[in-house]
Specification:
The protein is mostly beta strands. It is built from 3 helices and 30 strands. The strands form 6 sheets. Strands 1, 4, 5, 7, 8 and 10 form a 6-stranded antiparallel β-sheet that branches. Strands 2, 3, 6, 9, 11 and 12 form a 6-stranded mixed β-sheet that branches. Strands 13, 15, 17, 18 and 19 form a 5-stranded antiparallel β-sheet that branches.
Length: 378
């Protein structure tokens, strides 16, 4: 090996060693963080139980500990929460977004989060975020998490049925519903079958059968499902667009008191000279924010028509202007939903026209206002 080769490579090695050492030192300086009791799992509740609680009983205040397990100091800054309903506290004092905490090697930061149990069905999560300062891609923000899942007492799927029928014929169809009942376990071994309040000539129960055995959920909640086949029959005398509601209850026993009756809604629309959906579900929107959907309105015969007026029974549902249609044409009408509060909102959009056979259209609208959480199912 030549002296020139040894000198050249020795020089390169000597040049790189400080860089490698510096890089290793920098990586070690990123103090590892460990969060204790994270995530905090909230026991499952029935919605009826949550609704019966006071505001104080709904408070959830788990404590987390962020610990610096490295051998270098760490500066933590509070990045905030993903919901205004979540508060963060350190030793009783509220933590404000931007507050910085210094953690010595082996030091720890106790943090208490405070939320109210949400009145929503399904899974939910709340987060509070802390990050190192200055920010580093090698050390992303850490999240303190409160997670839980609420169960509906009675859940029916689908909760609504939408159907069309011809103008001059009797129309009949069979549909299947799945009803799930959840209760707090008090040595419950059997649950009575649901009892329907059938609507004459509208909803007829063909069959009710259990869908499997009792299912045990977390923390002494048990669930049982039924499959219900229903028959829907409409005559030519039925109105063009309307909805009907079939309610059902469960028989009470000595062991438990059942919640109020639940229902399934049937949206019905007669096929006619104007074609439009009978119902429009908006899903979930936060109060103060607007969700939009478009519906197609078609003239399916050779008669043009003008729109004489459009009204909504609930101010949460809005609409764009619509003047009418030429023969055999269509128009996309934009509807909006801006809930004023949390919970379910229902309304009817009424369209008055000068069409000779369809002077009035009704479109059922529904939506859910929700601050936070995962799913709706009650």
């Amino acid at each position: 090996m030549s002296r020139r080769y040894i000198f050249r490579n020795g020089f390169v090695l000597a040049f790189l060693l400080p860089i490698v050492a510096f890089g290793s030192c920098q990586k070690r300086s990123l103090a590892p963080l460990r969060i204790e009791s994270n995530p905090h799992e909230v026991p499952p509740y029935l919605l009826s139980e949550i609704r019966a609680m006071s505001n104080e009983q709904r408070r959830v205040t788990p404590e987390f500990v962020i610990r610096n397990t490295g051998d270098h100091p760490a500066s933590l800054v509070f990045r905030g929460t993903d919901c205004s309903c979540t508060g963060a506290f350190h030793k009783g004092t509220e933590i404000i977004k931007g507050d910085v905490f210094e953690l010595a090697p082996g030091g720890h930061l106790p943090v208490t989060l405070e939320v109210q149990l949400p009145e929503v069905a399904g899974k939910y999560e709340y987060h509070a975020y802390f990050g190192k300062t200055p920010a580093s891609t090698d050390s992303p923000p850490v999240a303190l998490t409160i997670a839980g899942k609420n169960e509906t007492d009675i859940l029916v799927e689908p909760y609504s049925l939408l159907h069309e029928f011809e103008d001059t014929t009797t129309w009949e169809v069979q549909k299947t519903l799945t009803i799930t009942r959840t209760v707090r376990d008090r040595t419950v071994t059997e649950m009575g079958d649901p009892i329907f309040e059938s609507l004459p000539e509208i909803l007829q129960i063909l069959e009710i059968k259990k869908a499997g055995s009792l299912r045990r959920l977390k923390d002494d909640l048990v669930s049982q499902s039924w499959i219900v086949r229903v028959n829907i029959a409409l005559t030519a005398n039925s109105r063009a667009n309307f909805q009907c509601v079939a309610q059902f209850t469960f028989p009470e026993t000595e062991q438990e008191k059942f919640p109020p009756a639940k229902s399934v809604t049937l949206h019905v629309k007669r096929k006619s000279g104007i074609d439009a959906p009978a119902g429009i579900p908006f899903g979930v929107a936060k109060p103060g924010e607007t969700a939009t959907k478009k519906i197609l309105i078609q003239s399916v015969d050779a008669k043009p028509f003008k729109v004489l007026g459009i009204e909504s029974t609930d101010p949460a549902f809005g609409f764009t202007s619509f003047s009418g249609l030429a023969a055999s044409s269509s128009h996309w009408l934009e509807l909006s939903f801006m809930p004023e509060k949390a919970g379910e909102t229902k309304g009817i959009l009424s369209i008055t026209t000068d069409h000779p056979s369809v002077s009035h259209l009704e479109i059922q609208a529904s939506g859910w206002g929700k601050e936070n959480g995962d799913s709706i199912g009650n």
